[in-house]
Amino acid sequence: MLVGTAGDRWRADLFGEVTRFFAGDTATWLRAGIEQRVRLTRNTAVRFEGSWNRDFGDGWAEGALRFDLHF
Q: One digit per residue, pLDDT tens: the chain, 71 residues?
């Protein structure tokens, strides 16, 4: 967690992943990004996730905007 606690209205998380393959495959997959969440009510929140990925020499960006409903 970068900012905030589980009960805070707003929080942000940084993440990173590295996957190294073996058994003849020499590719390495990289992923890094940030996820932010704003709690609207006790049971609803809006989340944004953005990441940068690299695999087999290609790089690309991904993003998502989500509405969470907990019941």
A: 566 666 678 989 999 999 887 777 777 889 999 999 999 998 999 999 999 999 888 899 999 999 999 88
On whether residue 60 sits in a domain, the answer given is yes
Closest CA to 47 of 37, 39, 57: 37
Report pTM: 0.68
Residue 1 lies in a domain: no
Backbone angles phi, psi at 40, to 5 degrees: -90, -45
Name the residue range of residue 61's domain. Answer: 10-69
For residue 4, is it within any domain?
A: no
Structural domains in the chain (count): 1
